Structure formats: C-alpha cells, structure tokens
Amino acid sequence: MNQFLFSLLVVITLCGQQQGNFLQEKQENQIFTIKLKETQKIVTAKEMYDFLSTKQTYFRQHTPIDIQEIEFGGYVPKLQQNEQTKKTSLKLHNFRNTQFTGPITVGDQEFQVIFDTGSANFWIDSVKCKNEGCKQHTQYKPSLKSKHLGYALNVEFGTGDLNGEINSDIVRLGEIEIEDQNIAEIIEENGSVFQNTGFDGIVGLGYPSMAAYNFNPLFDNIIKEKKLKSNQFSFYMSNQVNSYESQITFGGYDVTKLDGQVHYHPVIDKYYWMIQADNILINGKDQGFCPKGCKIIADTGTSLITGPFEDLMKLLDLTNINDDCSNLNQLPKLTFRIDGVDYDLDSKEYIMELRDDGTEIPLNNDVSASAFIQGTSDRCIGAFMPLDIPDPQGPAWILGDIFLKKYLSIYDRDTNMVGFGKAKH
C-alpha cells in the first residue's frame, strides 16, 4: 500500500497557479466572480481530525501529521454585491476534506483562503511568524489602515499549538469593502498541521456566537454596513477536476447553477448553520438513526459526511460494501429527509476510488471497498467519518462537500434559513 494512503481520504485544498484575472464583473447585475482552484491531499484520520479542529472556534482533542498532494478539483466563488451597498483558548474541530480556496485582500495583500461555514473566525499567517509553516504561505503585514487591538489567541493541539493576536485591518471581497475587520494574526505555529497546506487562512462564515471575544465575523460586518440587498451567500461546488466553475455568491445565488427547486430549512441553533432532519434512510427505509430527529450541520469546511460514532458504524454496516467493491452498483441509496424533503446520495456519490499513487479514477468493480473502514486498501474510499460532537451542539451529523457538491447551498441571515437545491453539473 502506498505509504501516504491510510484509512481515510482527506481532501485538503491548495491554491493553484492562478490564471487570468480573479475578478470578473457582470455589469448587468453587479455580480463579481472570484476564481479558485481545488486540489486534494491524503492524511490519516488523526490528522484530518486535527485540521478540522483547527477551523472551529472551540477545539477538541486532535493530532497532526504529514500530507501528500494529488490533483483533485476546481472551485470558483462568485461574489454578488447589490448596492443600496485579551486571552481566549479556542478548541477547533476541523474535518479538512475537500476545501475550496479563493482570493481575499487584507490591507494591501491578497491571500488564498478557505470560506468556511463551520467556523466564525478570520485568521491568516503573520509576517511576525518565523516558523516554517508560516513561511510557506503569504504572510500578513499590517497596512497603514490597520489597528492594533492586541487580544491574545491560543489554539492547542495534541502535538503543538498556534499563538497569535487579534487586530484589525481593511478587507476587500470583490467590490465589498470592510474597513475595520478583526483578523487573527498567527505569530507562532508549533506543529506540522499547516506546513504543507496551500491556503493562507480561513474566513469563518458561521454565526457570531462562535467567534472569539464576541468580535463580528466578516459576514456580520457586511450585514452591519448594509453592503448587500439580501444578507445571504451561497456555494456551488463543481465536480470538474482542476476547473474554475465552482463559486461562492454573496448577496444571493446563481439560478443558472440550479437543476430544480430550492427548499429552505430553519436554523435551530445560531452557532453552526444547523438544521433539523426528520430521518436518515437507507434505500428509503428507517434504520433508527433519528428517533427524535437529527441535528444536521451544513459545513463547507468539511468534505466528508460525519456522524456520531455508533450511528456511523451502523450506517457503514448497513451499506454492506464488499471488500472488492464488486457490489458497487447494488449499494443502497442514502437519504437525508429534512422537513419532508428527500436529499439522496447514490453509491457513486459517497464512494471514492483511488489509484495506487492516490489519483482519483472512475469507480468500477475491480477495487477494494473496505479501505475507508479498515484502512487495508488504497483503492476504494467511503466518504464518511465518525465524529462525536458534544453537547450542547451535538450529537449532530455534518454534511460536508460530498453532499454540498450535489446540492447548491444557500445561507440566509435575513430569515435564518439554509436552502438546498440540486446543482446543475
């Protein structure tokens, strides 16, 4: 087995060589598109848990390791603007799977960041950081418009930590400009979690209750300054490898990316973008996953689908994947029923297949399917991972990019709703 292929496939985004202008304006409706590139990396379950922990505001235990890059996909966020226009110890819970990166300007510099609905803080590496992990990324140097706030930031890991401080500077997303956005500058990185990653920071798009020191997340400042006609944003994630077709839209969503109706679901806890599922079905049958309903988190910073440990083990058992993947076409349909609406995933949408070198290939009947569960093969990977989220937010399931590629997702702060509609690919 290839030494970099372990029990889990974790997709970690790297910004690619940028081609042409990032910002393209459509004059008729003031939509600004930022192009992004997605690639893929492989890490172990522990490292995956480490990174996922790092994007959250409150951490849980985790442990980092080395990563190998392989090409994966593409991402293009679209920015739509409608003119009318001191110490906290944080626990991060970061399942870093398929991540999408795009440009954002802080002060006078451009950074490649992950736009993440599963966290609320905005952090980038500082020029003050001398560790190797920081040096591999664009490092932030305060502009003349920056303000020193000096709030301390500490993120603890099983094998290291991050230290920094929260200050403020001017931030631009396309034509959207925020003059005093708080930013966590990372000034020390102990551990290897971020050394080989291709992004410079994370922009959290979660609710302000999740943010450190009760500072406003970026989107809350956009709301406060009335930059948008509609206080919502949306994600379209393309299936095209190395393409620039994916997009994030601020102020609405792109109807041309939809293949059907959008259904909206109320947020039940203004911390995560959390909604309530009626049930989780296997081939349309109730298997007892949600006797009183299930909490569901829509998280663009997580690529896999995660669930409580016991429930996820039961799900994997019920899917009954043969070791050689010979029953791939007979594997059951997975359905998330939310407010009476069924969101289906077929087997080829929740199983991934890899060559020995880690590159993805079309699914067929010739490879081992127990790789994800047993870690004994480097070929067939199930896009699931157990994760026990504690109270009060948990237990909960996370719908990551595996799900969000099939369904365009809309996050509406005016109505506190999450919308899903089948994406056009």
UniProtKB/TrEMBL annotation:
One of its GO terms (molecular function) is aspartic-type endopeptidase activity. It comes from the Eukaryota. Residues 1-20 form the signal peptide. Keywords: Aspartyl protease, Disulfide bond, Hydrolase, Protease, Signal. Disulfide bonds join 129-134, 290-294. InterPro entries: Aspartic_peptidase_A1 (IPR001461), Aspartic_peptidase_AS (IPR001969), PEPTIDASE_A1 (IPR033121). The keyword Protease applies. One of its GO terms (biological process) is proteolysis. The active site is at residues 116, 299. PANTHER family: BETA-SITE APP-CLEAVING ENZYME, ISOFORM A-RELATED (PTHR47966). This is Peptidase A1 domain-containing protein.
